[in-house]
Specification:
Layout lengths: L1 H11 L2 E5 L7 E5 L2 H10 L4 E2 L2 H10 L8 H11 L5 H27 L4 E2 H18 L11 H17 L20 H26 L6 H6 L10 H7 L7 H30 L3 H15 L6 H6 L1 H13 L5 E6 L3 E3 L15 E2 L2 E4 L4 E5 H5 L64 H18 E5 L3 H4 L2 E2 L3 E2 L5 E6 L3
Parallel strand pairs: 2-9
Antiparallel strand pairs: 1-2, 3-5, 4-13, 5-9, 6-8, 7-8, 10-13, 11-12
Helix pairs in contact: 3-7, 5-6, 5-16, 6-11, 7-8, 8-11, 11-14, 11-16, 12-14, 12-16
The protein binds protoporphyrin IX containing FE (HEM).
């Protein structure tokens, strides 16, 4: 869907309206402008909820953080966010290395046999293994085997994606029946897979609760995560004093973290590798840095901070291929969006888009097109080219956008250039109160996997970029897999 929205963006500008009927529910405002996007995400977040997304994902994610209504979100975010503390992230670096090593061993075998490898499948498997361990200490082992639970997990993740590309919840049509009793085979199959996954989650939750060892937050943050047997987020959520919730909410939280943390990272790695496979000079820069910083060993958390160029390569991967490419919201009350004033008619594509702002009625839908924002030629030089070193240079606001303050690299930029550095011209993990809770986790995971890959291999696209193709779900996928020829490095 983000491709036609990009075409209209080029014709009608940073804020335009698609209307399918004269009611707010059938109206979609498409935002590609940093001011309007900042307004929705950061300045007036309470004027909006997740709208269609919540309706679509409710049967799968329930009231987990991503689709959560504002009230549930206010209760659960303060409980879940502290789970991503420093000591835990440091422990997770070990998990990233362990899971990535299994992938590398498998790739060695494939390279020795001269086989082409679908790296998209590989990255999705390794990120599923990692998220299973991180969230509920579950060993999917999907890089090396298949199991009914892996099959069920993939089927549910696929269905979540499939539904998120439909604007009408066709699975709720009463006369078609629901779940196991639906007349639609796809829905019956999905219900069966969901049951397998729910049973597995229930067992895991009951086991964690039977071993409950309550503590306050400070004590949980001080635990020796390197030596405890189960360092998962579930353990943290069960043990956190005052963080109690019912089993259904816990299940929804776990399922949401599984979905949110899986294909986002898999897709980030896929599209970054897609670009590097076509840019040998950029690949060499990553390899030079990885060899210099790691000297052949596994990356630690300190190393991840030193692997600056590798992180910028990933940041550039997220600029060109944002995951997800579109964020959804719905207006809860009458509100006004600011519009950019570039002096062109393009920024006022409809009669309710006055220079003073765009009036939005309650119930209207908002599409934040991160794809358009990140490729907006009024913000970024050569927006369609893969140029990781752009993040080392300031990007002045000289491209025709009168009121964007540009991008300024921070001296110590943390793990990635963020939405504030770029004044909302770049929002790789969203922004404002509903910003991603897993951003540090995801960046560290991706750096470990990418650096271990390039320690050992050169990569090359097996066919043309067009053969890889592109299709959208909740994240961006290839059409035909990312087929890669691996060459072992002599280091
Ligand atoms: C490269 C990887 C990732 C990307 C690009 C990404 C991107 C995003 C974005 C853009 C949002 C904001 C959505 C919105 O405003 O509508 C978000 C929210 C969220 N992400 Fe991530 N994410 C990634 C990895 C992860 C991981 C690893 C986890 C957990 C382990 C995670 C958990 C969440 C959760 C729970 C939310 C909802 C936060 C809230 O509403 O309070 N994400 N993510």
């Amino acid at each position: 869907m983000f491709m036609p929205l990009n075409k209209y963006f080029r014709e009608y500008g940073g804020v335009y309206k698609l209307s399918f009927a004269p009611v707010p529910q059938a109206t979609f405002y498409v935002l590609s402008d940093p001011h309007a996007i900042k307004h929705v995400l950061k300045e007036s977040p309470n004027d909006f909820d997740k709208g269609l997304l919540s309706e679509i994902l409710e049967p799968i994610l329930g009231k987990g953080l991503i689709p959560a209504d504002p009230e549930t979100w206010r209760q659960r975010r303060p409980v879940i966010q502290p789970g991503f503390h420093m000591r835990w992230l440091e422990r997770m670096t070990m998990t990233f290395n362990e899971c990535a090593s299994i992938m590398i061993d498998k790739l060695e075998g494939e390279a020795d046999a001269g086989n082409l490898v679908d790296m998209e499948g590989m990255f999705n498997s390794v990120s599923l293994d990692i998220i299973g361990k991180a969230v509920f200490n579950y060993e999917f082992g999907s890089v090396t085997r298949e199991s009914p639970v892996i099959k069920a997990a993939y089927a549910c993740l696929k269905e979540a994606e499939h539904r998120s590309t439909f604007l009408l919840p066709y699975w709720n049509v009463p006369f078609l029946g629901q779940g196991k009793f639906s007349v639609v085979p796809r829905q019956r199959e999905f219900a069966a897979h969901l049951e397998v996954l729910n049973d597995t989650l229930d067992t895991i939750i009951q086991k964690a609760k039977s071993l409950k060892n309550e503590d306050d937050l400070e004590a949980l943050e001080r635990r020796d995560y390197k030596s405890i047997q189960d360092p998962s987020l579930l353990r943290f959520l069960v043990d956190l004093r005052g963080g109690d919730c019912n089993d259904k909410q816990l299940r929804d939280d776990l399922m949401t973290l599984l979905v949110a943390g899986h294909e986002t990272t898999g897709s980030l790695l896929t599209w970054t590798a897609f670009e590097l496979a076509q840019n040998p000079a950029e690949m060499r820069k990553v390899q030079e840095e990885v060899d210099r910083v790691l000297g052949g060993r596994n990356p630690t958390m300190d190393d991840i901070k030193k692997l600056e160029y590798t992180r910028l390569v990933l940041a550039e991967g997220l600029r060109l291929y944002p995951q997800p490419p579109i964020l959804l919201r719905r207006a809860l009350k009458e509100t006004k969006l600011p519009v950019a004033h570039s002096g062109s008619h393009e920024d006022q594509a409809s009669s309710d888009m006055q220079p003073s702002g765009v009036s939005i009625s309650p119930g209207a839908n908002i599409f934040i097109s991160v794809w358009n924002l990140h490729r907006n030629p009024k913000l970024w030089d050569n927006p369609d080219s893969f140029d990781p070193s752009r993040w080392l240079r300031p990007q002045p606001a000289t491209n025709g956008h009168s009121s964007w303050a540009g991008y300024t690299p921070r001296k110590d930029m943390g793990l990635y250039p963020n939405e504030n550095d770029a004044n909302y011209g770049y929002i790789p993990f969203g922004g404002g109160q509903r910003k991603c809770v897993g951003d540090q986790f995801a960046m560290q995971e991706a750096v470990v996997i990418l650096s271990k890959l390039f320690q050992r291999f050169d990569i090359e696209l097996a066919g043309s970029p067009e053969e890889v193709g592109m299709s959208t779900g909740a994240t961006i996928h290839s059409k035909n897999g990312l087929m890669i020829r691996l060459k072992k490095r002599n280091v």
